[in-house]
Amino acid sequence: MGLILGIDVGSTTTKIVGIEDGAVKSPMFITATDPITSLFGAFGKYIYDNSIKLSQIEHVMITGVGSSQVETPIYGLPTTKVDEFLADGLGARFVTGLKRLVVVSMGTGTTYVRVDGDNIKHIGGISMGGGTLQGLAHLLLGTGHINDIIEMAQEGKSSNVNLLIGDICHGDIEGLPTHVTASLFGKARNKQVSRGDIASGLIHMVLETIGCCGYMSQVNVEGGIKDFVLIGNMTRLPQCHEVFPMIENLYGIRCIIPEYAQYCTALGAALAFKK
Q: What is the CA 262 to chain-centroid distance, rounded?
């Protein structure tokens, strides 16, 4: 088998990864002003940086919202579109080795995909994600650039804006430790807060909501799954390593950020070639 390219085409960001002899090859991403520019920019950079000839590529597998704009084969190569939810499931299953999991794809919004062996099914989603974080930061902080938000958040504390269980109770409530959030931004109206506090609060708001909704997707589901695999650009947020361990302890689940978390959908698209 030759090189299989998996490409996840977003609205402005495209991720590309190769699969050759069962091994992951050189994942990368490109950002541009539109999906087609991003797609061809990523493809060109990938083959140039890795000294790949077009004749070495056996097939191109594309997925993502931007793939709907692709109507012709990429540079004349065999090209196939892949359902994005299938790609999420295949990619997350491959990088974790798990057979039963829920994929939490944190992009502009968030989708949840249940994987039970070869049964891969989209089970829902929420309109909370990176787009929410950037939009609210633009309104409240004057910047929607993710690196600016991260930098501000490092100077603040989410507990200065979020009302915690410990703020309203002298001890733990059964199943609710004092450090758990009782009300997102519930404390902000009562005190002066810094821009860093707001940035930290926004990040925690988005991540906590995503994590809690993931857990609730499996509550009272027969044979509910306890392993939640987090993928997408939002996994790069340092606060993931604060928020998701708290959610693990609160609900008795596992939240896993795997290797190639940013590239899982592109990877899954490449893996779909075998299917």
A: 7
